[in-house]
């Protein structure tokens, strides 16, 4: 199933789909050569928005949850991709230590962890869970809704302090599914004998969205030249705004000016393409996740006129961290609809392979709003269905695998941007 | 769906399935390390037989046809695996030249070629077909039953004679789907600037089944030690017999003696395990394919008492070549049944990945006969179904993905044997 594109103005995207399909050999070759130069992160999910005139990643997650929302048909693909990844990092691997997020009450998150463990186990690894929660002193069992369970164990450094593991468990590879929002726990520091994936500077303690989208600019510029399209079709404008304090009202003028600049740029592009929609921007914390610290802005005055609750929402995000730096990003409408609900595609990758995806659907949200919010639902992408590879002869916009291939290409552009970003922001490039 | 195992005596195999599942991390790690040392062939299919007390490969095909019999759900897996393969051989590749078999009347074969082209195209390659038929002077179109078509083009060497291609098509990689039964065509010789996959000595002009099974002996010995099983459970006894001429009646005494030796060995094993079935062997051409030149033998006198038609069948195989060398292989019953028909699994691999498989089913053949014969049908293996990765908690023998994982392990043992075989039989090891 391809969600209905709820806009008459989808010509540009259908044409783009056609171009992408026709250019498949060049595109795949281009990616192959890029992956000779750059190492993809172990895994990644990309939130995208499809407005019919534009298809763009809006968020690139280096600690993807939500594996439980992928259809089980794609599991063999995920297993195969993680086999390729493990072979690269540590062919000799027996044991994988997975470090999840700390919230033990979010069952959906633990279902994601269970699904990931299933994938890595099938890859041929012994997988156990280590907790960053210092209060967790003994192995703790979490019972999942289906009756199965997970065991969270306290992390410990080896006797000589050089290795990280669990009791009677010495991993070769440590996989973080914890985005380190607040800071880098000292127990994760100074690990030189084991492979830590992704590296610590991929966590939100150090990562910045603006760095990512700066790299994405570079990637899209190169890609667009090859397939001969306007890079704007794949790339939302963005700019960085620092030292903004909503509570104290400082830095707001600069933020308003940035919002105005981006809105003006969008307006110009809309005019060029004859797009009648109203431009908007998204203001979000430059570091952070989980759909917090995000607002939709149609007029720069809105950032000045927030009420107390809204101010608080923009000031404090996950784990209580104060936010001062923001990214102002061109808002991309999502005109994909499943039934009456707005939908946005989320694509999952392991190593350099697209392994699946789903639509995030929200029936109470508008086409210009963040859908990553309570009340969202998930519909697996029609990936493993009959004739699951693209059909060159299908009419643009009608074949699910064609649409999905296009999504997979754009998601991989974001993945490549993440690779560049991790290279450029590496505090210790010599040992990377 | 798991085919019914039509034998009460399936304890050994169910226990083996359990062992294999439990040993998954060791097995996958073992394969990972083996693939660091040995390069798998580009692709491979393995015919297997499951007798309930034994699961063994009986034929390892390095020029697999039958891709059209794989379920379309596994296509993304095949695409991903061939991406990994191409990246290894020629990341810079744009063009792939595929050289098919010569028989233009076998529509099923061409459907296989169409399916393969679909896979490699999706990998991101321009794919065209070059014919070894010297009578084919211009591009020739083959119309498939679904109305689509394939174009066969004459092969040509480049002006300087160093490269092989088609008119206006210079490939980086040349993929043979032609098993070179008769001899190696001169147009394929002296290709040093392009990657020829698989190498020429993988063709039946040079390849010998006994070499393959000698290597398989080695592989299984190592593997069985690791998982602590009797290697015989995975490995049919075999021996080579040369200079046999059924027409002239020469070499038959030696053949009978070999048959007796193998039958005696099987009898001993059957006794050890309390198996009541009647031992049998398969006598087949040491070089050759397509189910020709094969006979089931329960008593060595049968090889002496052939009638004229049977003698002819054993003397001349595909492409009219005379056969003098034979492999005498322990016969493995196939006790898998779909409905009333005997079934044997065929597993497909690209690079080092299992990408799919099917059951070859024949309603007119017995449990001790070759099923690769006119009248055979194909049932895709239940690979891409719900919960398509193994379930450790399922009762042995009940879960399709568990059975299929076991098949995938044994098929990869044969794949590894093929890698060793190609290394050992390489006439130019220094340039391999």
Describe the model.
The structure is a homodimer of 432-residue chains. In chain A, the strands form four sheets. In chain A, strands 1, 2, 3, 16, 17, 18 and 19 form a seven-stranded antiparallel beta sheet that branches. A six-stranded mixed beta sheet of chain A has the order 6-7-5-4-10-11, with helices on one face. Chain A starts with a strand and ends in an 8-residue tail after the last helix. The longest helix of chain A is centred in the C-terminal third of the chain and has 25 residues, at 400-424. In chain A, helix 3 packs across helix 4. The model of chain A has no long low-confidence stretch (mean pLDDT 88). The first copy, chain A, has helices at residues 11-22, 24-37, 75-89, 107-123, 209-227, 252-273, 308-315, 400-424, and strands at 4-5, 43-50, 55-61, 95-99, 126-131, 140-143, 149-154, 156-157, 164-165, 173-176, 195-197, 238-241, 281-285, 294-297, 326-330, 336-338, 341-350, 353-362, 377-380. Chain A has 432 residues and is of the alpha+beta class. Chain A folds into two domains: 4-65 and 208-424, no CATH class; 72-205, 3-Layer(aba) Sandwich (Rossmann fold). The first copy, chain A, is globular. Chain A is 31% helix and 22% strand. At the A-B interface, helix 2, helix 3 and helix 4 of A face helix 2, helix 3 and helix 4 of B.
